[in-house]
Design a protein that fits this description.
By secondary structure, the protein is an alpha/beta fold. The chain folds into two domains: 5-261, Aldolase class I (TIM Barrel, Alpha-Beta Barrel), CATH 3.20.20; 277-338, Type Iii Antifreeze Protein Isoform Hplc 12, CATH 3.90.1210.10. The protein has twelve helices and ten strands. Helix 1 packs parallel to helix 5, helix 1 (18-31) packs parallel to helix 11 and helix 10 (211-219) runs parallel beside helix 11. It is elongated and about 100 Å long. The chain starts with a strand and ends in a 35-residue tail after the last strand.
Length: 340
């Protein structure tokens, strides 16, 4: 399989602090992720001032202000951050990515040279936005939280109406509850997306821990996206459902290990590393007692024990009833040359 793309989702966990954003980039790079991803939006274009916070956002903020607008306004990334963060990412050895939530943000991200577009779950039914992204002509990663298979199919049809091929699109299974209860993960839905829509698949994870994204890779995910933070106790809407630095590193290591574990031919045969163990672990046929020339070999005079570099016990029926051609002491491995 191709190398799994790991997107470390910093999102809005920078808390409006440029230095914190840089620290997040360094953590993602140190963990071995392929991309570090932020979020690009203008709160005035993203959300009505009357919109309320999601339940998990209110719980995580624990303040009296229920305004989603006020929360997001504080988490916008100023345009003058981007050149600095792009350079910082390049110096750290990781690719910079950001999700644009409106058409102007997509234009800006295209202008600064992002190599692909990541579409968030909430925009999957936003036809004008989907067309705008498609017409940029760059690879697309589409999250599908809250969507059913028909809505995903409709989004793909929008892309195709803009002359985009399905092999240019990766669809991520996702659940947008933060954190996602394990009973709601429905990881096999990722395979349903692949089989029904004939697209490359991945998984955007909001569960606690690292088990589910690693399992997704074992099932065939080619892209993994996971939120991370410097510290889950920081204030903000997403910190509590994010990995801390050591956990992010463990997740990346686990994914790379699973990547290797499923990269074989798929044909059951001994690996190069285990072939030497055949002699150590398998058994050969041995005489139990002293055997004299002309003796008939009976089942009772034979046993099987290690090592396995002699006659296989699978061939024992070919030996029983034969005569011995030489004197052989007890506890001697049987050899074909000893048998008439």
């Amino acid at each position: 399989m191709d190398r799994v793309i790991i997107i470390a989702e910093a999102g809005v966990n920078h808390n409006g602090d440029l230095n914190l954003a840089k620290e997040l980039i360094q953590v993602a790079a140190d963990a071995g992720a392929d991309y570090v991803k932020f979020q690009t939006f203008n709160a005035d274009k993203l959300v009505s001032k009357a919109a309320k916070k999601a339940a998990y956002q209110s719980k995580n903020f624990k303040d009296a202000d229920d305004s989603q607008y006020n929360m997001l306004k504080k988490l916008e990334m100023p345009e003058d951050w981007y050149s600095e963060l792009l350079q910082f990412s390049a110096d750290a050895g990781i690719k910079f990515l950001s999700t644009g939530f409106d058409e102007e943000s997509i234009d800006f991200l295209d202008q600064i040279g992002l190599e692909l577009f990541k579409i968030p779950s909430g925009e999957i039914t936003n036809k004008p936005y989907l067309k705008h992204v498609a017409l940029k002509g760059k690879p697309i990663i589409l999250s599908t939280g809250m969507a059913n298979i028909q809505e995903i199919s409709q989004a793909l049809a929008v892309f195709e109406s803009c002359n985009r091929r399905r092999d240019e699109i990766t669809v991520l299974h996702c659940n947008t509850e933060y954190p996602t209860p394990m009973k709601d993960v429905n990881l096999k839905a990722m395979l349903h997306i692949r089989d029904e829509l004939k697209v490359a698949i991945g998984y955007s994870d909001h569960t606690l821990g690292i088990e589910v994204p690693i399992a997704a890779v074992a099932l065939g995910a080619g892209v993994i996206e996971k939120h991370f933070t410097l510290d889950r106790s920081l204030p903000g809407p997403d910190h509590k459902a994010s990995l801390e630095p050591g956990e992010l590193k463990d997740m990346v290591r686990g994914i790379r290990n699973i990547e290797l574990a499923i990269s074989g031919s798929g044909i059951k045969s001994p690996s190069d590393s285990e072939i030497p163990n055949k002699i150590v672990a398998r058994k050969s046929i041995f005489f139990i007692d002293n055997i004299s020339v002309g003796d008939i070999i009976t089942k009772e005079r034979l046993t099987v024990k290690r090592p396995g570099n002699g006659i296989s016990p699978m061939d024992i029926d070919q030996i029983i009833g034969k005569k011995v051609s030489v004197d052989v002491p007890a506890d001697t491995m049987v050899e074909w040359s000893q048998i008439q």
